[in-house]
Amino acid sequence: MTVRPEPAPPAPSAHDTGAPVRAGLVLAGVHLSHGDGAETVRALDDVHLTVMPGELVAVVGPSGAGKSTLLAVAGGLARPDGGTVTVAGHDMTAAGRRARAALRRRHIGFVFQSGNLIPALTAADQLRLPLRFRPRRARPGRDPLELLAGVGMADRSDRYPHQLSGGERQRVGIARALVTEPDVLLVDEPTAALDRARSHDIVRLLAREAAQRSVAAVMVTHDHDVLEHCDTVYEMVDGRLAAVP
Ligand SMILES: Nc1ncnc2c1ncn2[C@@H]1O[C@H](COP(=O)(O)OP(=O)(O)OP(=O)(O)O)[C@@H](O)[C@H]1O
């Protein structure tokens, strides 16, 4: 695990071409408040974050610090009050609602706490669904069965969620998020329902996929055990994000 001071350094050059590598995700001066009047909560307070392709960033912090809000804004699910969010070079904050939804489907994969799978679909069909609904000009996507094999689920591709363990459901959830070949992966507490060994397996898998597929990945977690697999760790406190010294 390496810890990097904030703000992130300039993009490095690609070894083979000398071309600059474009950041997968950039949040610059992002603010967001919930509620109004005396009830206002500043959930994000001047947040800066740069995640390069291939990098797995962890965000830790106390309950209510703003971590889920950070993922919602990074994923274009919520619009910040100020600042910009850029995904694979596209300014999400400048885009209208429909354009933002298209950018989200084209460039972003989400992984949720417990997999969030659809009960009536087999593991393979969980992956086929987002491929069917991908927007025009999106990448063709990965082969669902190959991808399931890659996450250790080759012999369970025809199982339904209730026939899978918590760790297996999470593997399917990760594969589903990756099947559309996103530039950015946003991961919310992936180990919350898992034991220690499974938790390490899942975060190792996330780090491997991010590195091999040049995905910029952000994982929110309360699980300090798994931080060793992450490239950079940030802490969020009262809406402010800081690199962990
Ligand atoms: N829709 C909302 N309306 C009003 N306040 C909200 C809303 N969503 C979140 N908040 C408040 O914003 C702050 C940040 O919430 P957020 O869910 O981002 O925290 P978190 O760090 O993800 O917490 P946890 O670790 O418990 O999931 C909290 O004070 C929360 O109560």
How would you describe this structure in keywords?
single chain, 245 residues, alpha/beta, four-stranded antiparallel beta sheet, 6 helices, 10 strands, 27% helix, globular, disordered N terminus, binds adenosine-5'-triphosphate, ATP-binding, nucleotide-binding, ABC_transpr_LolD-like, ATP binding
Describe the protein in words.
- Keywords: ATP-binding, Nucleotide-binding, Transport.
- GO terms for molecular function: ATP binding; ATP hydrolysis activity; transmembrane transporter activity.
- The chain has 245 residues and is α/β, with parallel strands linked by helices.
- Helix content is 27%, strand content 24%.
- It has six helices and ten strands; from the N terminus they run βββαββαβαααβαβββ.
- The strands form two sheets. It has a six-stranded mixed beta sheet with strand order 6-7-8-3-9-10.
- α6 links the parallel β7 and β8.
- α5 runs parallel beside α6.
- The chain is globular.
- 41% of the residues are buried.
- The N terminus is likely disordered.
- Adenosine-5'-triphosphate binds next to β2 and α1.
